[in-house]
Design goal:
heterodimer; A: Rossmann fold; OB fold (Dihydrolipoamide Acetyltransferase, E2P); six-stranded mixed sheet; five-stranded antiparallel sheet; elongated; B: mainly alpha
């Protein structure tokens, strides 16, 4: 069990601001946030690479805040594939075991087994530079896992890989980390899909703070704040400044918004969040097409309404010309409402 | 177009090689001449243009009026240069690692100021340093000794080592040190087990610079020694008399250049190898 209390840093690129959390052993925690949210800084602070100005870190009730890096029983895989260029793949993975005091033969035997697990059993004597990017990252992953540390931290480990390789490693990830089942696994990413797919628990970071945490599906369905909704939505969620008046929801003056099934708050300003699947072709809302882009098997269309901008997603590859008018409908079941202070105030009748 | 470019390149490189190698061939040819062959116009090929003589070479290993024995100065030069270079390289590498990885601040003095302080030692003209060095060695009783010269050469070579190695270490990602520490190394262990083995090209370049500057220095070898200790560049001057013995000077020059040329050939492959590939992507 890893407990962090009020972690605060001031010297890092992005400062951590009073971050507290309790991590349980045997779980995968995905830490989701945009670039500059403080994900890497959190891992570096845990590892002891960034000094804390406040707070403490406890591993199994033992305060390790002042422990030297090498004594923390943690492993870290960087976003860049960092390996020791002067050592063979086998010696790279055996390196931490040798530092643990294992003799050479034992270390190499364990390293060899781990390399076979990550699919590099044939490349033991190669140098990292002789491997592809994906293979280099597997070496880094094997080196981190072979130590069987209590905490395994992976800092956007797939970010520098091409799309295909990323998909492949993402699929393999649960099998790869199976050996570390008793560890706390922290996995940072900027991709909501990756965070939801891999994590038992998802932690959302923004501006150096944890702004939400919970089961990925629950967080996606009910993001507690506007910032959380913004971070976990891909394609991006659209926010329109609206208001409630006389039990009616308006995008702007004269533009009534659909509100069937929604329990509207008291009269006053609200932020209306439109998920990309809330907007569908054909309907009463007129918009101008700004940009149309393909994402896999979907088409994402940027729309300019009179009351603001929003993104629509349709299945399949559709061609929309920029500048054309389009009529769309907006489904109230995919609308969320946020108070001016950012709280999610969406309530539904059922 | 490609062929034309290739031909042009070959011609240029051939011309440049001749330009670089010619002085050595000339010195080699001259070292086997005698006074007659030297003064009878430009001659190049032994046995064809002139009758070769070994006088130039033998005079370097005899004492008295026939020449000077350079074995002593050669050994002195080798000892002073090797010890000073080695000590400079060790101290310089450690200092450079500290300067590239840790932040120091004492009042207004920061890392960049300390690095500049080291380099500034080489900016000063040697004559400015000569008198202080002379007085300090005199106080230490180390004038005209190998020990004294080693001390002075360390002071002269250390900035070169610090300069080259600081630049080299700055090119090694700090994440490599961090990774070594997360893998169980202490900061010093990370340096010796990971950073140093990956710094061979930098060490070779710094070492070569130290050897070249140390081996070729004339000024301090001349001003800080009298009769007991004599280094190679100084002893060459003593060959000069009313008649300049060009044959001996040429042989001497080739002997002086030989050690550095041998070292350069041996370490060349380490200088050109980019060992950091595969460290970080």
């Amino acid at each position: 069990m890893l407990q962090i209390n009020h972690l605060t840093t001031v010297d890092a690129k992005v400062s951590l601001d009073d971050v507290s959390f309790l991590f349980e052993a045997g779980k995968i925690y995905t830490i989701l946030g945009r670039t500059g949210a403080g994900k890497t800084e959190l891992l570096r602070a845990l590892m002891g690479l960034n000094p804390l100005s406040h707070g403490n870190i406890k591993l199994d009730e033992k305060d390790i805040t002042e422990e030297p890096i090498r004594a923390r029983n943690m492993s870290l895989v960087y976003q860049q594939f960092i390996n020791y260029p002067h050592l063979s793949v086998l010696d790279n993975v055996a390196f931490p075991l040798r530092r643990q005091g294992k003799d050479k033969a034992q270390a190499q035997a364990l390293a060899s087994t781990m390399l076979a697990t990550v699919g590099l059993g044939e490349f033991l004597q190669r140098r990292p530079a002789q491997l592809s990017g994906g293979q280099q990252q597997r070496v880094a992953l094997a080196r981190a896992m072979v130590k069987q540390s209590r905490i395994l931290m992976l800092d956007e480990p797939l970010a520098n890989l091409d799309y295909k390789l990323r998909e492949q490693l993402r699929e393999e990830f649960p099998r790869l980390v199976a050996d570390n089942a008793e560890s706390v696994i922290l996995y940072t990413t900027t991709e909501p899909r990756e965070a939801m797919e891999l994590g038992n628990t998802m932690i959302v970071m923004h501006n150096g703070s944890i702004i939400a945490s919970g089961a990925p599906a629950e967080l996606f369905a009910n993001p507690p704040t506007k910032d959380t909704a913004s971070v976990i939505s891909d394609p991006p969620i659209s926010f329109v400044s609206g208001f409630v008046r006389n039990h009616e929801l308006y995008f702007s003056e004269g533009h009534l918004a659909p509100s069937e099934g929604l329990v509207l708050p008291e009269d006053g300003p609200v932020t209306i969040a439109l998920r990309p699947d809330a907007i569908e072709p054909d309907g009463v809302f007129n918009a101008k097409i700004g940009l149309s882009e393909f994402s896999g098997s979907q088409t994402i269309i940027h729309l300019d309404f009179d009351f603001g901008r929003a993104i629509m997603m349709v299945e399949g590859i559709e061609t929309f010309a920029a500048g054309d008018d389009i009529n769309v409908s907006i489904q109230s079941e995919h609308i969320m409402l946020f108070a001016p202070d950012g709280r999610n105030i969406t309530l539904r009748n059922n | 177009m490609n062929k034309f470019y290739h031909t042009l390149k070959t011609i240029f490189l051939l011309g440049w090689s001749i330009f670089v190698v010619f002085p050595f061939l000339w010195a080699l040819s001259t070292s086997f001449k005698d006074a007659n062959a030297i003064t009878s116009g430009a001659t190049y090929i032994p046995w064809v243009d002139f009758e070769p003589s070994t006088q130039g070479w033998t005079s370097l290993f005899t004492t008295g009026s026939q020449g000077i024995n350079i074995v002593g100065p050669f050994i002195d030069s080798a000892v002073v240069t090797l010890i000073a270079s080695l000590v400079s390289l060790i101290l310089g590498t450690l200092a450079a690692y500290g300067l590239s990885r840790f932040e120091y601040r004492l009042g207004f003095v920061k890392n960049s100021d300390i690095t500049f302080f080291f380099i500034s030692q080489r900016i000063m003209p040697p004559i400015v340093l000569a008198i202080p060095f002379f007085l300090m060695l005199k106080e230490l009783g180390a004038l005209d000794t190998i020990f004294g010269l080693v001390l002075v050469y360390i002071a002269l070579l250390l900035p070169i080592a610090v300069w080259v190695m600081t630049d080299f270490f700055s090119g090694i990602p700090k994440e490599l040190d961090e990774m070594a520490m997360t893998d169980g190394c202490s900061p010093i262990g990370a340096f010796f087990r990971v950073i140093l083995p990956n710094s061979v090209p930098g060490l070779v370049v710094a070492g070569m610079f130290c050897l070249i500057f140390g081996w070729n220095d004339f000024f301090f070898a001349f001003t800080l020694t009298f009769t007991e200790t004599q280094l190679l560049p100084v002893s060459i001057v003593s060959l000069n008399s009313s008649v300049t013995p060009w044959w001996s000077l040429s042989a001497f020059a080739l002997i002086s250049v030989a050690p550095l040329a041998c070292v350069a050939v041996i370490v060349e492959r380490y200088m050109s190898r980019g060992t950091m590939s595969g460290a970080i992507r």
